[in-house]
Specification:
Layout (H helix, E strand, L loop, with lengths): L1 H20 L8 H66 L11 E18 L5 E16 L2 E19 L5 E24 L2 E9 L5 H4 L20 E13 L4 E10 L3 E2 L7 E3 L5 E3 L1 E2 L21 E13 L2 E13 L7 E13 L3 E14 L3 E3 L2 E10 L8 H4 L1 E11 L5 E12 L4 E12 L8 E9 L1
Antiparallel strand pairs: 1-2, 1-21, 2-3, 3-4, 4-5, 5-6, 6-7, 7-12, 8-11, 9-10, 12-13, 13-14, 14-15, 15-16, 15-17, 17-18, 18-19, 19-20, 20-21
Helix pairs in contact: 1-2
């Protein structure tokens, strides 16, 4: 024991030195002897404590060595387990295919239902007030695999039915029947994500003619009715589409695109004339925008009515310069024949824009222009535009709960149907947010039209819920 040896050496050396330096002639007194004895006893006690400390350190060191040995053994077992797992994985990889077989791999089978529901109360000048509409529009979303999605939207409405009548002169007419429920499929499409830049879409697709149909319809509109010029465009079509977006730089800019082919519009009576007649001998437009799915009115499968699909697409530029401040511009269009003979064409172009300045202000709109060739009256140009702005009063920082839940909304829309009728409409309204998805909307519409039958102001209230 090194410490013990060193201490003993010091004691011997000290005693020897003390004896050597003590004068031989001097006698040692009892007090001096007792003092020296006490000092020796204290040194002995210190030596004993040092030995005990050394023994404890030695035991701790031995325990540490044992712990290190156990950790080494555990590490060896872990390494062996990892090696066995790797060998098993390599063996399995040699047996199984490296790519998932069709119908296999990463199947999630997530099913979700979203959508909206609305109820409206309205009053049109010269007419009775009342609850005008009850609507339920579910959207079913199904995720079959990581890159395979399916979505379908339906529109279920409660409204009065029509009863065919004949007046005393034998002229056909239509009367009001009991309330009935109408069921329409708005769209049903499959989305296959080829990669992060390209998605294939097939089915009854929402068409990217502008952005309204895909982003603002229903309860997202903030006003109870659609802009007038949207009536010049189909909202969906049967066909296929490629779409996606490509980032530009690292500041959030992107270029979005969509290219598609669909059956396109059709002629109600097949002639391609400008007008035809309904069962009540009323003149109606011969251009049909919401059909042509390969079956005629008798259920006969005839493919496309006119045998020449329409082509279209959209390209957009999105530019954000900071959070909640961004600008988007888009250009879209579609063209193709619409009569059964395939000799008359229908074409539409749309310019869309949207601007956000802070979380509280939004400005958006579209300009729509179309070309309709007819077999009997030449070419017509239905066109129009709409601009809509909204401001959330929470941006005023008034600390008033009721005021902070209100968004003021205004819209101007105008149309010229190409056949001589022109209409302008100014709308002022509000949205009260009970929550982000429960909205109470109201607006008053000032209507000016060259057709006296449509020149009536309208008051509308709507409760909408998105889920």
């Amino acid at each position: 024991m090194r410490i013990h040896t060193q201490v003993c050496g010091l004691l011997v050396a000290g005693c020897t030195l003390g004896v050597g330096l003590t004068p031989p002639a001097a006698a040692v007194t009892d007090d001096e002897f007792n003092a020296l004895k006490n000092m020796v006893q204290q040194l002995g006690e210190k030596v004993q404590k040092l030995e005990q400390t050394h023994d404890q350190d030695q035991k701790t060191h031995e325990q540490d060595q044992q712990q290190i040995q156990r950790l080494k053994e555990q590490a060896g077992e872990t390494q062996k387990t990892a090696t066995d797992a790797q060998q098993k994985a390599e063996a399995a990889a040699q047996v199984q295919p490296t790519r998932p077989m069709p119908g296999e791999g990463n199947a999630t089978h997530n099913f979700t239902m979203v959508g909206d529901a609305e109820i409206q109360f309205g009053k049109t000048d010269g007419q009775h007030s009342g609850f005008a509409m009850a609507d339920f529009a579910p959207i079913f979303l199904f995720r079959a695999r990581d890159n395979v999605l399916f979505e379908a939207g339906f529109d279920i409405k409660l409204q009065n039915s029509a009863v065919p009548l004949v007046d005393k002169f034998g002229t056909p007419m239509t009367g009001n029947g009991d309330a009935t429920t109408t069921f329409d499929m708005s769209f049903a499409q499959m989305d296959y994500m080829v990669n992060k830049y390209v998605t294939f879409v097939g089915g009854d697709m929402l068409l990217p003619l502008g952005t309204y149909t895909e982003r603002s319809a229903g309860w997202l509109n903030k006003l109870p009715d659609d802009p007038l010029p949207r009536g010049f465009l189909p909202s969906s079509g049967i066909g296929a589409q490629l779409r996606g977006a490509v980032p530009v730089g690292d500041a959030g800019q992107s270029i979005s695109y969509a290219v598609y082919g669909v059956n396109g519009p059709y002629s109600v009576d097949g002639s391609g004339n400008a007008f035809t007649f309904d069962s009540g001998t009323n003149s109606i437009s011969n251009l049909g925008l919401g059909g042509n799915v390969g079956f005629d009115s008798n259920g006969n499968s005839i493919g496309n009515f006119h045998g020449a699909p329409s082509g279209g697409g959209r390209i957009g530029w999105f530019y954000p310069w900071k959070a909640h401040y961004d600008l988007e511009l888009g250009l879209s269009g579609q063209s193709g024949s619409w009569d059964n003979a395939g000799s008359q064409s229908w074409t539409a172009g749309v310019v869309d824009a949207a601007l956000h300045l802070s979380p509280y202000f939004e400005l958006k709109g579209e300009y729509i222009y179309s070309w309709l060739q007819t077999a009997d009256q030449g070419t017509f140009h239905p066109n129009g535009c709409w601009v809509q702005a909204g401001y959330k009063l929470a941006g005023l920082n008034l600390e008033l709960p009721l005021i902070n839940n209100v968004e003021l909304v205004g819209r101007y829309d105008t149309i010229h149907d190409g056949f001589g009728m022109k209409m302008d409409r100014w709308t002022v309204g509000y949205v009260y947010y009970f929550s982000n998805t429960l909205l109470f909307e109201g607006d008053y519409e000032f209507v000016n039209s060259s057709d006296p039958a449509q020149a009536h102001n309208v008051l509308v209230f709507q409760v909408g819920y998105g889920f």
